[in-house]
């Protein structure tokens, strides 16, 4: 049914880069056979899923939305892919994304944009717009995203779906193409909080193949999502995430969600995080710096595209020609920004300062979490904007992640869930919930209460 739905609507939505029809049907049959043999099956066995094209899938194309990886067939599965398969999840295919997850609208994909199913003239958010659009268009009931600065939560907000960035290190990064390794985190996307929790439990857990993987039990997220009791919970509204640039309808629906939490018995207070206004600037030094190093591996020798290899040119020339042809404008911008910020003489002024700001933001969170159990804010200052509106203005594009970036810099857990439609445009608004590291279950408790 989901393959038929994809066939019917994906021409308009453009959520998928690759549909693995044969692989999906084979996996579904394998689950059926296990059932017939009377084997115990997990809660997600046979459930279809849309996988962001940043996770390696053995023998199935993995492009990261880039021309430089066109035609590459990974020789191995990411740990996350493997866990999904072991859980009996049916991977329908790979979803569209901003090239190397750099963007907030999915317009930076080398394979064309994805449309927002709520209004096909608008962006679905990014970088994981394909995964979130697939959920909103009923092409898949579950999806996977990655969140470096908001790429799970912001598209969830724009498409009226649920997206969770688990605590940094909770979900293995092995086989997840690296963008900014100290920020990148894979996580679940779904249409309900409970579905997200079930998927969270399936993909989280220690992995010796990822040196930053957390070796601790996964928090009881499913239990929390089934419970949803927020009585006596202390909830802090982030004071800094309001004011100029925030759409009226977004603030209205956010305020109503906060009122609902109060009615359900939570204690709501306002909390100040004074360093959050510097988060965006710090992020756009740290993320490009790490990216400039991570993307050095695309050298025309190891993966995918190779341009100008005709025996007259040196390896350096082939590398340069391939990177020139294979990377898009935003990726080149980030590589240049990052290389500059890391260069000797500028390192302390840029990368060093950004790391200090990162520490200040972490301290803001520590102070806040001494007083409250979770923080809440809108996920994004506005609802989905029209396709093309911000493509020529990188700074305007970067502002879409104003509220999501602090949680990445500090490594906290955070969720976006729908909290109604903005009255002025009828588009979905996201409520962001942020919890301390390793307290991911609190997100699901609050999410289940509001949903
Ligand atoms: N939009 C942000 C960026 O462009 C975040 C991306 C992400 O979370 N992958 O870097």
UniProtKB/TrEMBL annotation:
Active site positions, chain numbering: 52, 127, 151
The terms under GO molecular function for this entry are:
glutaminyl-tRNA synthase (glutamine-hydrolyzing) activity
Question: Is Nucleotide-binding one of the keywords?
Answer: yes
State the UniProt keywords alphabetically.
ATP-binding, Ligase, Nucleotide-binding, Protein biosynthesis
Which Pfam families does the entry mention?
Answer: Amidase (PF01425)
Q: What Gene3D superfamilies does the record point to?
A: Amidase signature (AS) domain
What sequence ranges are listed for the domain Amidase? 1-443
Give its E.C. classification number: 6.3.5.7
InterPro entries in UniProt? Amidase, Amidase_CS, Amidase_dom, AS_sf, GatA
Known catalytic reactions: L-glutamyl-tRNA(Gln) + L-glutamine + ATP + H2O = L-glutaminyl-tRNA(Gln) + L-glutamate + ADP + phosphate + H(+)
The keyword Protein biosynthesis is annotated on this UniProt entry: yes
Enzyme class (EC, first level): ligase
Listed HAMAP family: GatA (MF_00120)
Q: Which family does it belong to?
A: Belongs to the amidase family. GatA subfamily.
The function of this protein is:
Allows the formation of correctly charged Gln-tRNA(Gln) through the transamidation of misacylated Glu-tRNA(Gln) in organisms which lack glutaminyl-tRNA synthetase. The reaction takes place in the presence of glutamine and ATP through an activated gamma-phospho-Glu-tRNA(Gln).
Subunit comment = Heterotrimer of A, B and C subunits.
PANTHER family linked to this entry: GLUTAMYL-TRNA(GLN) AMIDOTRANSFERASE SUBUNIT A (PTHR11895:SF151), TRANSAMIDASE (PTHR11895)
Q: Which protein are we looking at? A: Glutamyl-tRNA(Gln) amidotransferase subunit A
Q: Which organism is it from?
A: Streptomyces zingiberis
């Amino acid at each position: 049914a989901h393959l038929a739905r994809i066939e019917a609507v994906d021409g308009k939505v453009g959520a998928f880069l690759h549909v693995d029809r044969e692989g999906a049907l084979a996996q579904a049959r394998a689950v059926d056979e296990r059932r017939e043999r009377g084997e115990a099956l997990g809660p997600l066995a046979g459930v279809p899923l849309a996988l962001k094209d940043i996770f390696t899938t053995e023998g199935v194309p993995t492009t990261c939305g880039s021309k430089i990886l066109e035609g590459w067939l990974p020789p191995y599965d990411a740990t996350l892919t493997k866990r999904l398969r072991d859980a009996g999840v049916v991977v329908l295919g790979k979803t569209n994304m901003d090239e190397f997850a750099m963007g907030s609208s999915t317009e930076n994909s080398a394979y064309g944009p994805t449309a927002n199913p709520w209004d096909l003239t608008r962006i679905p958010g990014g970088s994981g717009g394909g995964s979130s659009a697939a959920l909103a268009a009923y092409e898949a009931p579950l999806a996977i995203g990655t969140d470096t600065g908001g790429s799970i939560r912001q598209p969830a907000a724009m498409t009226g779906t649920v997206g969770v960035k688990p605590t940094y290190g909770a979900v293995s990064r092995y086989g997840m193409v690296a963008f900014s390794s100290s920020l990148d985190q894979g996580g679940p996307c779904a249409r309900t909080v409970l579905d997200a929790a079930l998927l969270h439990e399936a993909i989280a857990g220690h992995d010796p193949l990822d040196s930053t993987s957390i070796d601790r039990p996964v928090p009881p997220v499913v239990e929390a999502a089934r419970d949803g009791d927020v009585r006596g919970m202390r909830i802090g509204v982030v004071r800094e995430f309001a004011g100029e640039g925030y759409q009226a309808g977004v603030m209205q629906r956010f305020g109503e969600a906060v009122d609902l939490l109060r009615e359900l018995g939570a204690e709501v207070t306002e909390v100040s995080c004074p360093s959050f206004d510097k988060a965006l600037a710090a992020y756009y030094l740290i993320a490009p710096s790490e990216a400039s190093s991570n993307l050095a591996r695309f050298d025309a020798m190891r993966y995918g595209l190779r341009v100008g290899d005709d025996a007259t040119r040196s390896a350096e020339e082939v590398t340069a020609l391939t990177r020139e042809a294979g990377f898009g404008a935003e990726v080149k911008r980030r590589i240049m920004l990052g290389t500059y910020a890391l260069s000797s003489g500028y390192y302390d002024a840029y990368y060093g300062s950004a790391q200090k700001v990162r520490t200040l933001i972490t301290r803001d969170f520590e102070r806040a979490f001494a007083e409250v159990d979770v923080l809440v804010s809108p996920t994004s200052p506005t609802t989905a904007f029209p396709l093309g509106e911000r493509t020529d203005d990188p700074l305007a594009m970067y502002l879409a992640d104003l509220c999501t970036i602090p949680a990445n810099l500090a490594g906290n857990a955070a969720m976006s869930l729908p909290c109604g439609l903005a009255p002025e445009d009828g588009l979905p608004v996201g409520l962001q919930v942020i919890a301390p590291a390793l307290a991911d279950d609190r997100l699901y408790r609050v999410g289940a209460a509001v949903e």
